[in-house]
Description:
single chain; alpha+beta; 7-stranded antiparallel beta sheet; globular
Amino acid sequence: MKKSAERNRKLIAGEEGQIDSIIKSNPKVKYIASTKGYWYTYLIQNKLDTLTPKKGDVAFFDYEIKDLKGNIIYSELELRPQTYLVDKQNIMTGLREGIKLMHKNEKVTFLFPSHIAFGYHGDNKKIGTNQPLLCTVTLHNFISEEAFKKEIQLKAETQTNTETKLIDTTKTIKK
């Protein structure tokens, strides 16, 4: 058990060293260290809104995932659109925490060590074992779960009404 803990400490230290190199290589970009173990910088910041997503809200966002060298692993196009029930759905730990820092219409780049990204297993597709990630996230909007459910219900009712009208029109044309 002690060997495992020591191995993890070395892994995290190595990844944080890589991230620190990225931060130092571009001093014009101001990265902020979070209390949760990742770093972030605003590409687009919304200083007017004060609200951020909280547990039970539904967040609508797009994002892309790159390795620390900037190579795209998953493009925004591959991953869009995302609808996330805040703290009630299973997503990458860093992303779950990062989204809760954002305001509507912000775009943020996050640097996640592997233990708060996809961890030891990766994603069993394109993200490897213990791979730190660079994620750029655009939070378009968020609403309460209750408002989201009402929106879904309204869309379903509208679609049903439209289909009924279409059937009635079709019957009238056939006569």
